[in-house]
Amino acid sequence: MPIQVAVIGFGTVGTGVVRTLLEKRNWIRKWVGQPVNLKWVCDRDVPRPSGFKLPVGIATTDMAKVLNDPEVQIVVELIGGLEPAKSILLEAIRKKKHVVTANKALLAESGRQLFAAAAKADVDLSFEASVGGGIPIIKILREGLVVNEFDAILGIINGTSNYILTQMREKNLSFYEALSQAKRLGYAERNPALDINGNDAAHKLAILTLLGFNVFPRQSDIYVEGITRISQADIQYADELGYSIKPLAIAKETNHELEVRVHPALLAKSHPLANVNGVYNAVYVHGDLVGSQLYYGRGAGQNPTASAVVSDIVSVACDLAGVGGVPPIARALSKHQRVRFRRIGDIETRYYIRFTVKDQPGVLAKIASVLGRHHISIATVHQKERTGARAVHVVMMSHMAKESNLRNALRILDQADFTKQPTVAIRTEEPRQR
Amino acid sequence: MPIQVAVIGFGTVGTGVVRTLLEKRNWIRKWVGQPVNLKWVCDRDVPRPSGFKLPVGIATTDMAKVLNDPEVQIVVELIGGLEPAKSILLEAIRKKKHVVTANKALLAESGRQLFAAAAKADVDLSFEASVGGGIPIIKILREGLVVNEFDAILGIINGTSNYILTQMREKNLSFYEALSQAKRLGYAERNPALDINGNDAAHKLAILTLLGFNVFPRQSDIYVEGITRISQADIQYADELGYSIKPLAIAKETNHELEVRVHPALLAKSHPLANVNGVYNAVYVHGDLVGSQLYYGRGAGQNPTASAVVSDIVSVACDLAGVGGVPPIARALSKHQRVRFRRIGDIETRYYIRFTVKDQPGVLAKIASVLGRHHISIATVHQKERTGARAVHVVMMSHMAKESNLRNALRILDQADFTKQPTVAIRTEEPRQR
Question: How many domains does chain B have?
Answer without folding.
Answer: 3
